[in-house]
Amino acid sequence: MAELTHIIDSEVFLAFSTYATIVVLKMMLMSPMTAYFRFTRKCFANMEDTGMAKTPEDKKRMLRVDPDVERVRRCHQNDLENIIPFVVIGLLYTLTGPDLSTALLHFRVFVGSRLFHTVAYILPLPQPSRAVTFLIGLVTTSSMASRVLMTALYL
Amino acid sequence: MAELTHIIDSEVFLAFSTYATIVVLKMMLMSPMTAYFRFTRKCFANMEDTGMAKTPEDKKRMLRVDPDVERVRRCHQNDLENIIPFVVIGLLYTLTGPDLSTALLHFRVFVGSRLFHTVAYILPLPQPSRAVTFLIGLVTTSSMASRVLMTALYL
Amino acid sequence: MAELTHIIDSEVFLAFSTYATIVVLKMMLMSPMTAYFRFTRKCFANMEDTGMAKTPEDKKRMLRVDPDVERVRRCHQNDLENIIPFVVIGLLYTLTGPDLSTALLHFRVFVGSRLFHTVAYILPLPQPSRAVTFLIGLVTTSSMASRVLMTALYL
């Protein structure tokens, strides 16, 4: 296990583990948030979820689409589309042996941009706040990807 | 390659590889299952997929939303939202060097909960079976994430 | 950091890093492509995105579902459902120490199949071109998964 200890002890890897875990936990929080909005808006996708209804008509009425629920779900989907690529490319980037300060800059900017993105999406804040936070995340991941390709290119 | 051999030979890593592969394969099975429901229900999302129809009216009629297909797709989406975080955080957790028995407990509970979740979603079973299996998975991944953050925290 | 250097220097790992990065970047390109179609079709999902509209009626008219936008989004979703499993299982497969030529075959076939899949989905090409490229990707990932399970099985 000496090698594992070495990997997990490099500061860049520790930083990656920390920021990746934080941003994945943030993404996972979108599920309970969706559930919260489904219960408060009484809006469900499955008949078996409408147990709080008393009559069959009430049950059917709860099988609907609610704009607040859809907003949280779009935010969750945007997280999947952006945070997963960050984690994959960030891991490979970490293994290319970048400077600690450069790596920390990438990790912090990405995680910060995604936290602001969620706030901008859910409140919502006026555009272009959501578009800008989305783009910052995209550029950060692309910057790490370019280093992976420059260091590891083997076609 | 000595180091790679060491990593792949640690029992926790072997267990992680096994359970991660099994649960990702389970997730991948949702695609053929969606295709199966689309063909048996004759319900498609793209005009070019309706080749089995004989008349243009039949083609248009097949471009519809079917509740069984949507149920499988929601189950697939829930897998993406939960199994990917498990894989990411599970890998980092594995690298923190946990006890084999503790790690196996986490991996087995998570994979078991997701197998039951799929059964509960597709049949469907009455609630709260689906909610409970979902929550067990969420708690398991969160437990691994807390160990990663306690071991590797570097902000 | 000797071990990290060793890992990142094995040719199979370099090849995996390259192909995984390329195919994840391809997936990330679907977001700007969705934005492009949303702006050219004037079709948005959030009220705050309709800033280009002049009157409140125009804003409401832009909150609609467009078939071209939905097609790009389905393609993006299919990428998430297939490329992420490839990356996860491909990483574990890489760590099992496969032959370089066998590994390259898997990586190239998968990435090639997904590039063609996107072309087949967006143009669109007549079926079964999209179905075949999808299946090739599924079989490639399953082949890597079977090697992981045969090498690492630990239940």
Description:
The structure is a homotrimer of 155-residue chains. The first copy, chain A, has a single domain (2-31, 65-153), classed as Four Helix Bundle (Hemerythrin (Met), subunit A). The first copy, chain A, contains 7 helices and no strands. The first copy, chain A, has helices at residues 2-9, 11-28, 30-41, 56-62, 67-95, 100-122, 129-152. The longest helix of chain A is centred in the middle third of the chain and has 29 residues, at 67-95. Chain A binds chain B through residues 1-5, 7-8, 11, 13-15, 17-18, 20-22, 24-25, 27-28, 30-32, 45-46, 48-49, 51, 76, 80, 84, 87, and chain B through 3, 6-7, 10, 13, 70-71, 74, 80-82, 84-85, 88-89, 92, 95-97, 124-127, 130, 134, 138, 141-142, 145, 148-149, 151-155.
Briefly, what is this?
The first copy, chain A, is mostly helical. Chain A is built from 7 helices and no strands. The longest helix of chain A has 29 residues.
Number of domains of chain A: 1
Uncertain spans of chain A: none
**Largest interface pair:** A-B, 32 and 36 residues
Q: Give the C-alpha Rg of chain A.
A: 20 Å
Organism (chains A, B, C): Oncorhynchus kisutch (Coho salmon)
Enzyme class (chains A, B, C): transferase
Keywords (chains A, B, C): Acetylation, Endoplasmic reticulum, Membrane, Mitochondrion, Mitochondrion outer membrane, Transferase, Transmembrane, Transmembrane helix
EC number (chains A, B, C): 2.5.1.18
